[in-house]
Amino acid sequence: MNQLVFWPNKILRVKTNKISLVDNKLLEEVADLKKILDESLGVGLAATQIGLDRRFLAIKNSETKKTTVYINPEIVAVFGEKVFPIMIDKDGKEDDFLEGCLSFPDYWGTVKRFLKIQVIFKEIRGIKLVKREKVMTGLEAVVFQHEYDHLEGIVFVDRIKEDKGKFFKSYKNKMIKWDLDKVIAGNL
Q: Is 147 part of the annotated catalytic residue set?
């Protein structure tokens, strides 16, 4: 069984290869990815994060807990501007949405993302790959962009730096501002 890999593992910088065939190996890899994601607190996971140079990712619906796998995903349209997403609590108070990554445990940051995207992908139907299309909004769109970046060899700390976002390490239930350049260099 594959296992979660952590930064600075070199596989996290690989631009993945497309999948053309549904075989037992792919089915096992997809099952591993889903199992690892389902057993984690994360909402998304890409194949590179379990050490695979394969072009697929999964997103877990935070409400239904259903996990969907996207084979050979592509973002074909974006709507609006890239923004730093915000969260609104039950009292209506706004706060920064802090993006995290299972391959960077305890690190969080603000990343500009599109809040609405259109994607195409393949899903496994028996032994075939069937083309699908979907419009995603909100958290689902943000998670998809994060995981898609993994398939392109881009990690979220790259985006934080590019966007001049905020970067933190969680320590003893507090968020402490942290040195982004050291983490990018592999010095966790």
A: yes
